Structures are given as C-alpha cells and as structure tokens.
Amino acid sequence: MNVDLMRTIDRRVGVPLAFLLTLARRTAGLLRRPAPQMPKKILFVELSEMGSTILADPAMRKAKEKFAADLYFVIFQKNRASLDLIGTIDPARTFTIREDSLLNLTVDTVRFLFWVRRQRIDTVIDLELFSRFTALLTGLSGAVNRVGFYNFYN
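Above: the chain sequence. Below: its structure as tokens.
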C-alpha cells in the first residue's frame, strides 16, 4: 500500500475507531486501570519510520538496563532491516506486520493482537507521532502501562 492510502485509512477509520474504543473503555469502567507496575516486558511500537527506530535505540538500551526487562518490538516488514541492524531486540521478540496490501495488514494486525496478549506484555511504548493505528494497537495490547501519543482527534 502506498503512504497516502495508509494515511487516509488511518485518518478516516482510525479516528472513529479510537473514539469508539475510548468511549467503550470509559463506559465499561475500564478507565480505572490497575496501578502502574515495574516493567518486566516492554513492547516498543514503531511501524513506519525507519530512522526513528534507530534513534530510539538508546532509549531501548536504557530501559533494558534500568528495568532488566525483556524488550519486544512491532514494526512494518519494510523497516525490519533497521531493527536487525541495531541488534538491540532479539528477533524472536519482534513482530513484523506486512503492509503490502490491506488484506495482509488486517491479517497481521489480528495476529499481532493475539501475539501481544500471549506474551503478557506489561508496558507498551508507542513511538509513532501521528498514527491512530499504533494508538489502537497500544490500547488493545492489554498492557497495564501504556505510553505514547494517543489523541484520536488530531
């Protein structure tokens, strides 16, 4: 898929989905999350920007050092090489989402949601600045600690 189509889908579908998810969480009383806990398994979400993945490397190394946590990462397939290049994340703890077609994107997103729950990730750090898609992934991850840019209306 081309970048313009991905942005259009993110805006037209992501905004209402993020709004509905926020509304559902508040209505169901899920806004009262458990108290934050010390991270043991940290997932970094950076799908589309190869350079940002490289720039985030010192933060990932610091998190691993400070918390002695297992690090995980989710990234688009086309950017996987940048993650492999820095070598901070074990390839077995990396989830790759194919973005070459809407069908593959959808299938891999559903697979990711099962994968992230199976891993019992307790902390998610969303490194994407303007993506509602990653905000949705973060919100649906099941993690107690969630950090990132999550406004659905921007």
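The longest strand covers residues 70-76.
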